[in-house]
């Protein structure tokens, strides 16, 4: 009977990326173990009573901080702080393409055919479902078409 968890004798060698990833993971785990051992030693110096005190203090401070944040959320006029002016300002100016090249004419024809196709989908329930699925998969499609048409008027 084959054991699915048994390592196969003819296993392929791991790639360089896998070895590098394993080395990084191993070093991170080593540092975590060292940190945990150091923390364990330092905490074990304190008595049980002192450890309980620190635990209660930590929980009380955390609870009071998060409670104050919740109160401020409901009390303040503007729960979200929005900066008045951002450091990065981008101005986008859309210029219509005035060239009536063959590509533009083909693209306009494709868009018109697509709009006609969408209109025909509305006639049946199966078509409406197909249209709904299409718009879910491509949420900005109709907006893009409208923006393109507006730009090229």
Keywords:
2 domains; mainly alpha; 5 helices; 153 residues; 66% helix; transmembrane helix
Question: How would you describe this protein?
Answer:
- By secondary structure, this protein is mostly helical.
- It folds into 2 domains: 18-75, no CATH class; 102-151, no CATH class.
- The chain is 66% helix and 0% strand.
- The protein has helices at 16-44, 48-75, 102-121, 125-137, 141-151.
- The relative contact order is 0.04.
- The model has no long low-confidence stretch (mean pLDDT 82).
- Keywords: Membrane, Transmembrane, Transmembrane helix.
- The chain crosses the membrane at residues 53-75.
In short:
This protein is 66% helix and 0% strand. The chain has 153 residues and is mainly alpha-helical. The chain crosses the membrane at residues 53-75.
Unreliably modeled segments: none
What count of helical segments does DSSP give?
Answer: 5
Derived from helix and strand composition plus strand pairing, the structural class reads mainly alpha
Number of strands: 0
The helix fraction, in percent, is 55-70%
Strand content: under 5%
State Rg.
Answer: 31 Å
What is the average of the pLDDT values?
82
Number of domains: 2
Large-scale geometry: extended
**H/E series, N to C?**
HHHHH
Sketch the major β-sheet: none
Termini separation comes to 73 Å
């Amino acid at each position: 009977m084959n054991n699915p968890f048994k390592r196969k004798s003819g296993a392929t060698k791991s790639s360089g990326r896998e070895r590098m990833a394993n080395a990084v993971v191993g070093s991170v785990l080593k540092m975590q173990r060292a940190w945990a051992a150091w923390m364990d030693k330092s905490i074990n110096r304190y008595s049980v009573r002192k450890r309980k005190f620190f635990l209660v203090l930590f929980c009380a401070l955390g609870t009071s901080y998060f409670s104050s944040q919740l109160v401020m959320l409901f009390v303040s006029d503007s729960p979200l702080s929005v900066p008045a002016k951002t450091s990065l300002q981008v101005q986008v100016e859309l210029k219509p393409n005035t060239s009536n090249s063959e590509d533009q004419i083909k693209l306009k024809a494709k868009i018109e055919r697509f709009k006609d196709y969408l209109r025909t989908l509305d006639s049946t329930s199966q078509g409406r479902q197909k249209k709904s699925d299409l718009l879910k998969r491509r949420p900005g499609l109709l907006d893009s078409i409208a923006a393109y048409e507006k730009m090229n008027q």
